[in-house]
Amino acid sequence: MLLTHDTRGKGVVGLPTGEAKGRDLSWLDWSRAMDLSPDGSTILFDETGEGGGPNYSVYIRKVDDSPAVRLVEGITQALSPDVKWALCIVTHSSPQQLVLLPTGAGQPRPLTHDSVNHVAAGWMPDGAGIFFAGNEPGHGSRLWVQDLRNGPARAISEEGVGATWNAISPDGRWIAATGPDRRISLYPVAEGRRKPLAGVASGDVPIRFSEDGSALYVRRSGELPVRIFRVGLARGDRSIWREVDLSDPAGILTVAPILLSRDGKTVVYTYFRVLSDLYLVDGLK
Question: Is residue 204 part of a domain?
């Protein structure tokens, strides 16, 4: 009989500015990088495997060799632009709510307490607000924005939008998100209609806008090897911008998410790997 023993896990690899070889930034057994500081120096990640505990754990660390620092239990979403706060999801509440966690000294700050089940979130560029995807009971996922200084959350899209990865323009005016047709559109934060984006295809996933806001970086869902495309917003011109180096590709099934620094020079990605040991067994009865 031929038997297999599979070892599954997630890990994080960083490609800092000027380095050609990837650096292993994994911490425990199921590391998932969720955000990268604008300057590319700090990553926010969570541990959702056995090592992370029953309610998982949130960590922050530099892309150098310094150790990770555990912040709290839960799963995480985004770093504030000044890297002072981590936007996280409270997994043990129903529906899931958002909380702000200080990355240094301070106390957690509950952010939402409503009927929306929050599934993905990010920061506005000025740090004064957030955007998130979530669904109310009996409804599909929508995009919402919320000013942290005052006022409740406000929905800005139709249902079926933005349940996974989204990106916001540097001026805070547009959110790139995937709609029910699996195609990326630009959704205005203020009043207005969505803008279909030329140069994208079904299955493209937004990563982030270019530093000057003239283009959107996207990847193909599930594609290996991983390529990052640059799509111009004005004409929809599309080109391969970078192929992500998988320093150890053995057993890697998926790569997601992919994170870029503001200038695009630092890349951090999360991989899902399955390694198998095969055994030939004789004499089984």
Answer: yes
Domain count, the chain: 1
**66 Cβ partners below 8 Å, 6+ apart?**
none
Spatial distance between the Cα atoms of 116 and 144, rounded to a whole number of angstroms: 10
Give the C-alpha separation, 202 to 238, whole Å. Answer: 14
- The burial of 254, by beta-carbon neighbours within 10 Å (0-12 exposed, 13-18 middle, 19 or more buried), is given as middle
For residue 139 the two structure tokens come to 């409804």
| Three-state secondary-structure class, residue 161 | coil
Query: Which CATH number does the domain housing residue 118 bear?
Result: 2.120.10.30
Q: Which residues pair with 60 in a beta bridge?
A: 44, 69
**Contact (Cβ atoms closer than 8 angstroms) between residue 122 and residue 132:** yes
Structural domain contains residue 283: no
- The parts of the chain modelled with pLDDT lower than 70 are none
Q: Which domain holds residue 145?
A: 6-272
Burial class (CB in 10 A: 0-12, 13-18, 19+), 232: middle
